[in-house]
Design brief:
By secondary structure, this protein is α/β, with parallel strands linked by helices. The protein has helices at residues 14-25, 38-51, 69-75, 87-100, 116-120, 125-128, 156-168, 185-202, 209-215, 226-233, 235-248, 261-268, 309-319, 323-332, 336-359, 365-373, 379-387, 392-399, 402-405, 410-415, and strands at residues 5-9, 30-35, 61-65, 78-81, 106-109, 131-136, 145-149, 173-177, 281-284, 289-294, 299-302. The protein has 20 helices and 11 strands. The strands form 2 sheets. Strands 3-2-1-4-5-6-7-8 form an 8-stranded mixed beta sheet, sandwiched between helices.
Length: 432
């Protein structure tokens, strides 16, 4: 597949500018960066070059506004739509792309979970087989995951060519998924994150947001704690993802995708996370301290330094590479905090296995997705980790609540698991 010219529509957004940089740098393509305002497109060129630390690609990045959309699309070998995560907005832009695109070009959407099939139907019958979801993760320069979403219209030959281009030219970790709400990585990741948000509301008298983040820190196999991740992504984006899953799917974890009321209030108040300067957390420049939203008071307070014996024990063992004893501390400690932590890790395993069956084509797909899209210990690797000290099947049946056990065939799900291709030791850190 010879991709020389690319058009990115919605290039002024964070993902639009970053993806433009990937096409221009790794792909050495000429990239038309289109947004509604030419000045925003010019700013996006600077952001794109900065995102891959390469000013040399600026010659490949050409700012345009929507008046040039048809002309740019008609010239392009690949068109990448990256507008707002709203189906009506995407349908409107996709129809405009469909009216101008060449029959031999590739069209794709960077949506994080909306229906690729519905969007593909904006195109002619012959072009529908050349339309894909190409969902990269932020920042794509360091997060290499690319979910490649196919539909009933997909051309097998074009799929093979596009896969090769994404893997070998853009240097992506390609995971093919079915066209299902939130696809694979976000379906698993945001189930975990939104449930952590609900637990913050449940345990608001214990501290709430920073309390839960402290229980699920880097010593539990993730680069960033879950609620900090929601702030990084943006609470509005978080809401769009969990709402999409809630309204368009139905599995045992369905209710865990209901957005807590305190998060909706923050969104309504424009407190969307890092991009707006405040959300679940905010940095106080005057005092140079990190503050956290207190769910009880509706105000920000200083982030607390929690000391949980189970966490301190795990970190002590992880620091010297004694992972077996670290996991023994987790499994054998019966404090409230250890029980919460173990629940989340075991449910992460179960929900991943259930989701793989529905959304993916390979048992290892979720491992690649969570490792390279979230930088979390992958689910099969989590099984390897906990299995070093306990019978994972028996532990799940003992520690997970009945509402999960009666809705999931644990024996069947675990029987499909294989040893992970990832080393769990890379993900468990002794820091907070």
């Amino acid at each position: 597949m010879n991709i020389k010219t690319v058009t990115v529509v919605g290039a002024n957004g964070a993902m639009g500018s970053n993806v433009s940089a990937i096409f221009a740098s790794f792909g050495n393509a000429k990239v038309y960066m289109i947004s509604r305002d030419i000045e925003k497109s010019k700013e996006a060129v600077l952001k794109a070059a900065k995102s891959v630390r390469a000013e040399s690609i600026m010659g490949n990045l050409i700012p345009k506004d929507y008046s040039a959309l048809s002309e740019c699309v008609a010239e392009s070998d690949l068109v990448f739509e990256s507008v707002a995560e709203n189906i009506d907005v995407k349908l409107d832009i996709t129809k405009k792309i469909a009216a101008a695109i060449r029959d031999d070009a590739i069209a794709c959407s960077g949506t994080s979970g909306l229906s690729i099939t519905q969007l593909s139907e904006c195109f002619s019958d012959s072009m529908r087989g050349r339309y894909f979801g190409v969902h990269m993760f932020n920042p794509p320069y360091s997060m290499t995951l690319c979910e490649l979403i196919t539909t009933k219209y997909t051309s097998a030959d074009v799929l093979a060519e596009l896969t090769e281009y994404l893997k070998n030219t853009l240097i992506r970790t390609v995971v093919e998924t079915k066209d299902s709400p939130a696809f694979l990585a976000n379906r698993i990741g945001f189930q975990f994150i939104n449930e952590a948000m609900k637990y913050a509301e449940r345990y608001k008298d214990n501290g709430g947001i920073d309390y839960i983040d402290s229980i699920l820190g880097s010593f539990t196999g993730r680069a960033m704690a879950p609620l900090s991740t929601a702030d990084f992504v943006g609470l509005d984006v978080h809401k769009a993802i969990v709402d999409n899953v809630y309204f368009n799917s139905d599995d045992y974890a369905h209710d865990s995708f209901i957005l807590p009321s305190f998060a909706q209030k923050l969104i309504d108040d424009g407190k969307l996370g890092r991009k707006s300067g405040e959300g679940l957390y905010k940095f106080d420049n005057a005092t140079k301290t990190l503050k956290v939203y207190d769910i009880n008071t509706g105000k920000y307070r200083n982030k607390m330094k929690y000391v949980f014996p189970f966490a301190e024990g795990m970190k002590k063992h992880i620091k010297v590479g004694d992972y077996k004893n670290a996991f023994e501390v987790l499994v054998n400690n019966r404090s409230q905090e250890a029980e919460i932590c173990l629940y989340f890790l075991l449910n992460y395993i179960v929900y991943s296995l259930v989701t793989i069956e529905k959304v993916a084509y390979d048992i290892h797909a979720a491992d690649a997705a969570m490792a390279t899209g979230f930088n979390w210990c992958p689910p099969l690797a989590m099984i390897d980790a906990i299995s070093s000290v306990a019978d994972i099947n028996a532990l799940i049946k003992e520690r997970l609540p009945r509402n999960i056990l009666v809705n999931v065939d644990i024996d069947r799900s675990l029987s499909a698991a294989e040893r992970s291709e990832y080393d769990y030791r890379l993900y468990f850190k002794s820091t907070n």
